[in-house]
Write a structure and sequence with these properties.
This protein is mainly α. About 10% of the residues are buried. The protein has one domain: Helix Hairpins (Orthogonal Bundle). It contains six helices and no strands.
Amino acid sequence: MKNDQNVAVAKCKELVKNFCSERDWDQFHNPKELAIGISTEANELLQIFRFKSEEEMNAMLNSDKRKKIEEELADVFYFVLRFAQMNDIDLYTILSNKIAVNSQKYPVDKAKGSNKKYNE
């Protein structure tokens, strides 16, 4: 399964790399600018849900508003992929490692059904 996941992520990174390369954008994509892009796009996604009730959010996800939500999520994903691609970061490995760390902080028997932070 790991290999399949790595292939999928690599294909996504290659798609982003080619898109940017065709436009000569490497010069603009240093770590700071890409981190800003991640934050900006994540906030645009957040803005869609701001001050919405659970019912309103569910309705948006089942309406024509879903396309806008998907576009903003794709923008976040694009910047994450580009950051990883430009800085030779293996997203599958770092995610797997982070999940392993979080598994220690949030053992199932203590964290299941709870949204409290590990130190609370």
